[in-house]
Amino acid sequence: MPAAPSPAAALAERRARARAALPPPVERVGALRWMRDNLFSSLANTLLTLLTVAALALVVPPILMWAFVGSVWYPPDPEVCRAATGACWAVIVEKHRVMFFGLYPYAEHWRPFLAVILYVVAVALTCWRRCWSWQVLVPLWAASLAAIVVLMLGGIFGLTVIDTGQWGGVPLTMVVFTATVTLGLPLGVVLALGRRSEMPVIRLLSVLFIEFIRAVPLVTILFCAAVVFPLFLPPGWNVDKMVRVLIGMGIFYGCYFAEVIRGGLQAIPRGQYEAAASLGLSYWRTTRKIILPQALRIVIPGLMNHIISAFKNSTLVIIVGLFDLLNATGAAVADPLWIRYYTEGYLFVAAVYFVGAFALSKYSQQLERWLAEGRRY
Amino acid sequence: MAHDGPPRQALAAALGSLVVRSLAVQVATAVVVAALVYLLVSNAAENLVRQGIASGFGFLRHEAGYDVGETWIQHSARNTYAHTLFVGFLNTLYVSVLGIAFATLLGIVVGVARVSRNWLIARLSAVYVEVFRNTPLLLQIVFWYTVMRQLPPPRQALHPFEGVFLSNRGLVHAIPVWTPVHGWMLAALLVGVGASLALGYWSRRRREATGASTPVLWPSLALVLGLPVGAWLLGGAPSAVDLPALRGFNFRGGATHSPEFVALLTSLVAYISAFIGEIVRAGIQAVAIGQREAARSLGLREGLILRLIVIPQALRVIVPPLTSQYLNLVKDSSLAVWIGYPDLVSVANTAINQTGQAVEGIVIMMTVYLTISLSISLFMNWYNSRVALRG
Amino acid sequence: MRTWVPMAAALTAALFLTPSAEAADGPTLAAAKARGQLICGSDGTRPGISAPDSRGVWRGFDVDFCRAISAAVFGDPDKVKYIPLTPVQRFPALQSGEIDVLSRVTTHTLTRDTAVGFDFAPINMYAHTAIMVHKELGVTEGKQLDGASVCVPPGSTIERNVADFWQQKKIKYKPVVIENLKELNDAYLAKRCDVMANFLPGLATVRAYQAPKPEDHIILPDVLVKEPLAMAVRHGDNQWADIVRWVVYATFETEEKGVNSKNADEMLKTQDPEVQRLLGVSGDLGEKLGVRKDFVYQIVKKVGNYEEIWENTVGKNSPLKLDRGLNKLWRDGGLLYSPPFQ
Question: How far apart are CA B222 and CA B243, in angstroms?
Answer without folding.
Answer: 30
